[in-house]
C-alpha cells in the first residue's frame, strides 16, 4: 500500500516506477544468477533502450511504377530439375506393419541393383583434355542414371553420350538387361506384327517407291546379340529423370540412315521427311545412328582384350616363314568373343614380350599412335547386321550344284580387334593435305613427378566420338571409356550433302500418226440435227376443258 498522501495512480504513472517495472520484467525473463550485482547493467540497458526500427519516408521515394522482373533464362527448367532431384534423394518410406507381422515376416533380401559407371570421374578424365560435360551436368546425369537403375531391371549402365537437337538435346544411356530380374511376358501379350507391302497413301510415298532399291531381306539380330547387344535409353534436356527405351534397330533402318543426312529435333515421335523415305520415326533414326557410331567408334588400348577365331591361323610359305596377317576377312557368321587380357608372370620374359607395352602401362607414349588402339565394336555389314545373315530356306539350286563352282559374294571386313590405323583415311577436296587419318591422338598435360598419363583418341569420320585412356607406370593395362557428344551425323569430308535425285519425269505419249478432229460450229450442228416434232393440234372439247 502506498504511504499517506501519495496517490497510487500518480505513483504508477511516474517514470521511476515504469523504469523499475521494466528492469524487474527484464530480469525475470533473463533470470541471472547474481541479479543483485548486475541490476545496474539491466537498468542501463533499459534506460538506453533498443534502436528504433528504420522508418520509411516518401521524401526520396521514386513514384514511378517499377516493372516486373522477368525470370532469368533456365530458371523454370532448373526448378523442375531440383524438385525431381529432391524426390530422388528421399528414400522410399517403409510400409508400416504391426508388431505381429514384423515378428512373423522373414527378413527380405535386399535387391541387388545393377552396376553403374562413375560418370563424374569419367567426365573429369575427359575434362583433362578439354572435352566432356561440365561438372554440374555430369552430376545431374549421374543422378538420372541412378534413377534409371532403380526403375529398370538392368545389370549395367553407363553414359553413352549426348546428341544435340534443334528443340532439345538427347542424353543416351547404354545398358545391359539383367535376365534374372526381367518379368516374364504373359501368353496373351504378343508383339504387333509390322505391315509389309502396304500401298502408298500419299504422293510423297508414291515417289519414294519409284526407282527405290531392293528391300533388305536380312532379319534383325536378336536382343542381346550383335548390333542389339545393348539396350539404349534416352532422356531429353527438359527432364533428365524421365527415360524412354529405344526400340531395337532393324537392318532397313540402318540402310536408310546411310542414305540420308537429317538433323535431330529432340522429339522422338517426329516424322523423318527425307528422300529417300526413312521407314520410321525419329526414335528409329536415333537408334540407327547410335548403332553406326557404336560399332565404328568404340575403341580401347591394344592388348586390353583378346579374342579367339577372329583371324585364321597364320600361314607359312614354302620356306617356313609366317605370312603377314590379312587386313580383311570374310564376314563372321558367329561373332568372336571378347575376353580381358590375363597378366603374365612378371619373371617370364617370353610371355611379356608380345604385350610389353600393355604390361608396363604404355610408358613410351604408345597411345599417341593408331597402332596402339583397337576396335572393340564389331563391324557393321552392308546388310545392317554384325553377323552374316543366313536364311534357313535358302538351298542351292540343281543347276548350281551341277556346275559345281558357286560365286562367293561374302562381304570382306576388318578382323575383330583390328588396329584403328587400318581405317580408311579421309580426303577433303581442295585441301592442301592429300588425306587425313581417321583418328587423331593427343596427350593431356601432366606434372613430371606424376606416374599417370591421360590420352585422348578422336574420330574424324564421326566428329564428336571420343575415347580416353589413363595409364599408370609399371601397372598393366589402362582405364578407358568412350563418349560421343555431337549432332549424330557422319562427316561429309568437306562436301555438301546432296540427296538422291527425284525420279525422272515420264515421257508424253507419242503424237505421230494421230489425226485430230476439229470442233464443228453451231450451224454445222443444225445442219445435221434432227427435225423438230410437228405441233400438236387441239380439238374443241380440249379447249373448253382448259377454259373451265
UniProtKB/TrEMBL annotation:
The keyword Nucleotide-binding does not apply. It is found in: Cytoplasm, Cytoskeleton, Cilium axoneme. Residues 86-117, 387-406, 528-548 are annotated as: Disordered. Keywords: Cell projection, Cilium, Cytoplasm, Cytoskeleton, Flagellum. InterPro entries: Radial_spoke (IPR006802). Its main location: cytoplasm. One of its GO terms (biological process) is axoneme assembly. GO terms for cellular component: radial spoke. Residues 100-112, 392-405 have a biased composition (Acidic residues). This is Flagellar radial spoke protein, putative.
Amino acid at each position: 500500500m502506498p504511504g499517506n498522501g501519495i496517490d497510487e495512480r500518480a505513483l504508477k504513472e511516474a517514470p521511476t516506477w515504469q523504469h523499475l517495472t521494466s528492469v524487474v520484467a527484464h530480469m525475470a525473463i533473463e533470470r541471472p544468477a547474481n541479479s543483485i550485482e548486475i541490476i545496474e547493467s539491466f537498468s542501463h540497458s533499459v534506460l538506453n533502450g533498443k534502436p528504433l526500427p528504420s522508418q520509411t519516408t516518401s521524401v526520396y521515394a521514386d513514384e514511378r511504377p517499377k516493372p516486373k522482373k522477368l525470370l532469368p533464362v533456365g530458371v523454370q527448367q532448373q526448378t523442375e530439375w531440383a524438385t525431381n532431384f529432391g524426390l530422388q534423394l528421399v528414400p522410399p518410406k517403409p510400409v508400416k506393419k504391426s508388431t505381429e507381422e514384423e515378428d512373423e515376416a522373414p527378413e527380405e533380401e535386399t535387391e541387388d541393383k545393377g552396376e553403374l559407371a562413375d560418370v563424374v570421374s569419367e567426365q573429369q578424365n575427359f575434362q583433362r583434355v578439354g572435352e566432356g560435360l561440365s561438372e554440374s551436368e555430369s552430376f545431374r546425369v549421374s543422378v538420372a542414371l541412378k534413377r534409371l537403375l532403380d526403375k529398370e531391371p538392368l545389370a549395367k549402365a553407363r553414359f553413352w553420350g549426348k546428341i544435340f537437337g534443334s528443340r532439345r538435346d538427347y542424353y543416351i544411356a547404354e545398358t545391359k538387361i539383367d535376365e534374372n530380374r526381367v518379368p516374364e511376358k504373359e501368353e496373351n501379350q504378343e508383339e504387333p506384327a509390322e505391315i509389309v507391302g502396304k500401298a502408298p497413301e500419299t504422293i510423297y510415298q508414291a515417289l519414294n517407291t519409284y526407282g527405290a532399291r531392293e528391300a533388305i531381306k536380312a532379319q534383325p539380330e536378336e536382343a542381346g546379340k550383335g548390333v542389339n547387344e545393348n539396350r539404349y535409353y534416352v532422356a531429353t534436356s527438359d527432364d533428365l529423370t524421365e527415360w524412354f527405351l529405344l526400340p531395337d534397330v532393324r537392318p532397313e533402318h540402318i540402310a536408310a540412315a546411310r542414305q540420308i543426312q537429317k538433323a535431330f529435333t529432340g522429339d522422338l515421335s517426329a516424322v523423318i521427311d527425307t528422300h529417300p523415305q526413312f521407314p520410321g520415326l525419329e526414335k528409329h533414326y536415333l537408334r540407327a545412328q547410335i548403332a553406326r557410331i557404336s560399332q565404328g567408334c568404340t575403341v580401347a588400348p591394344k592388348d586390353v582384350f583378346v579374342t579367339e577365331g577372329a583371324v585364321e591361323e597364320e600361314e607359312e610359305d614354302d620356306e617356313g616363314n609366317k605370312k603377314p596377317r590379312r587386313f580383311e576377312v570374310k564376314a563372321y557368321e558367329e561373332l568372336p568373343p571378347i575376353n580381358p587380357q590375363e597378366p603374365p608372370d612378371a619373371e617370364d620374359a617370353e610371355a611379356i614380350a608380345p604385350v610389353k607395352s600393355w604390361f608396363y602401362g604404355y610408358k613410351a607414349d604408345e597411345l599417341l599412335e593408331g597402332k596402339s588402339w583397337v576396335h572393340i565394336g564389331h563391324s557393321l555389314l552392308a546388310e545392317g547386321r554384325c553377323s552374316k545373315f543366313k536364311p534357313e530356306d535358302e538351298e542351292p539350286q540343281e543347276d548350281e550344284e551341277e556346275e559345281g563352282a558357286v560365286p562367293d559374294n561374302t562381304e570382306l571386313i576388318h578382323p575383330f580387334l583390328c588396329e584403328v590405323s587400318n581405317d580408311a583415311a579421309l580426303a577433303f577436296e581442295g585441301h592442301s593435305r592429300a588425306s587425313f587419318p581417321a583418328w587423331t591422338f593427343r596427350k593431356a598435360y601432366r606434372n613430371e613427378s606424376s606416374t599417370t598419363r591421360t590420352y585422348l583418341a578422336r574420330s574424324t569420320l564421326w566428329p564428336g566420338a571420343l575415347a580416353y585412356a589413363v595409364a599408370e607406370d609399371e601397372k598393366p593395362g589402362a582405364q578407358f571409356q568412350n563418349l560421343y557428344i555431337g549432332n549424330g551425323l557422319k562427316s561429309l569430308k568437306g562436301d555438301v550433302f546432296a540427296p538422291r535425285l527425284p525420279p525422272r519425269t515420264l515421257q508424253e505419249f507419242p503424237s505421230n500418226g494421230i489425226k485430230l478432229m476439229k470442233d464443228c460450229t453451231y450451224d454445222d450442228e443444225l445442219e445435221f440435227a434432227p427435225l423438230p416434232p410437228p405441233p400438236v393440234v387441239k380439238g374443241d372439247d380440249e379447249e373448253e376443258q382448259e377454259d373451265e
